[in-house]
Every structure is written in C-alpha cells, then in structure tokens.
Specification:
Helix content is about 60%, strand content about 15%. By secondary structure, it is an alpha/beta fold. It has a single domain, classed as Rossmann fold, CATH 3.40.50.1010. The protein has a five-stranded parallel sheet with strand order 3-2-1-4-5. Strand 4, helix 7 and strand 5 form a beta-alpha-beta unit. Helix 1 packs across helix 3.
Length: about 140
C-alpha cells in the first residue's frame, strides 16, 4: 500500500509526464490519501492559476485529472482517533495542522504495520516526521 501526501499528488496533475512513471509503478498498489487531499490539490492548482503559471484551460485539465484520480484512490476518513493522533503529532514534530492530519491518516492506514506502507511525499519536513514515525518514505 502507498499513502500519497498532497505534495506528491499535485505534480501528477500539473506535470503529468513527470508523474506518469510514479502512477505506472503504483499500478499494482492501491493509492491511499487523506480525505482533504482533493481540497489541498485544488488549492495548489488555483494558486498556480492566480500566479499565471497555469492558464484557465490548463486548470480545467488539472481539475479533471484530479477528479479522475480521486475516483480510484482510497480516502482515510476523519475520525476522533485521527484528530487525537494529529494533535499528538503536532507536539512531537514541527508540522503544520494539515500536515499532521496527512501523517495521522497515513498512520491510520498503516495500522500496526508502519513498515508495510510507503509514504510518498515531496515535503522535507513531513517526510522527516513520517520516517520518525516508522513509515517508509519515498520521494515522488
């Protein structure tokens, strides 16, 4: 199983050529994400549009691709246990709130077997925290 942080999902949307090998490599593994990933990814795409990096047409394509990806992945739903874990992670690691929720979701997906899940991430601070929590970190 592979848990994808939004920092690794966004490049799949904006630069599909770069992301294609990652998706192909994961064809046999279920893509798992935090329930807020769609919102975070849409935010990143909108930010790219506001700064002029992406045209309106490119934004539509990115959002369509996001929708397509989201129909195939598994989402870790919010829960009281996930919130408690995210709060603990904020005290243990120098993370932002959304990053603590991402990591808490990955830990929930892993269950007792943190070594059995790959954590796909492009954020150095979050990757370090994930490794310290026992996840196998893989840069996207």
């Amino acid at each position: 199983m592979r848990f994808w942080d939004t920092s690794a999902v966004v490049p799949l949307l904006i630069n599909e050529r770069a992301g294609a090998p990652l998706i192909a490599a994961d064809a046999k593994s279920q893509m798992v994400v935090w329930w807020g990933t769609v919102v975070e990814a849409a935010s990143a795409i909108a930010r790219q549009e506001r700064t002029g990096v992406l045209s309106g047409e490119q934004v539509v394509h990115c959002l369509d691709t996001l929708q397509e990806l989201s129909t195939a992945w598994l989402e870790v739903a919010p829960s009281d246990a996930l919130r408690r874990t995210a709060q603990r992670l904020l005290r243990v690691h120098a993370l932002k709130a959304a990053d603590s929720l991402q990591l808490a979701a990955a830990l929930a997906a892993a269950g007792e077997r943190t070594d059995a899940i790959d954590f796909i991430c492009c954020d150095a601070r979050l990757s370090e925290a994930a490794a310290r929590e026992g996840l196998k970190v893989r840069a996207a």
